[in-house]
Fold:
Amino acid sequence: MSKMRAALCRITKGFVSPMSTPHSNHPVLELRVALTVSDYERSIKFYCDGLGIEPSAVWNNGQGRALVLELGKGTLELFDETQAEIIDQIEAEQRISGQVRFALQVPDVKAAMERLIAHGAMLVNPPVITPWGDYNARLQDPDGMQITLFQVPDPNQS
Structure:
C-alpha cells in the first residue's frame, strides 16, 4: 500500500474505510453518473417525479438535452463478481444486474418503490431485510437499469 493510501485509509478486518477530517483534501470532489436514455421525457418523469427530485441544471442546446439531478452524497462501490452475485442473490434472488446498478438510500423504501412503480419502474424483487440490517428493494427503470432502494434502520428504534 502506498504511503498516501496508508495515510488516507485505515484497514480494519479487511474493510478499508476513508479517514476524513473537516479540512482533508479529497482528490475527487464529486461523482457524476452520466446515463444515456432511450426516451428522455419518460426518464425525466421517472427520475424527477418518481423520486421527487427537481433538476439542479437543465441544458437544451437546440440539438441535445440534458439535466443534472442532485442525489445527495455520492459514493462509488466496486464489487468483484462474487460480491455482485451475493448482493443480487439477497436483493433479487438471482444474478441479474449488469456492470452498473444504482443504489439509492431513501427515507422510506415502500413509498419510494410505489412512486417509482407508478412512473414506470418494474419491481424485480420486493423489499427484504439484508444480513447487515438494511431494508432493500430491487427495481428496474424503463431503460433496464437495475436500481436498489435501501433504507438504513433508525438507530433510535429497536
User: Anything to note?
Assistant: Helices lie at 3-8, 40-51, 81-92, 109-118.
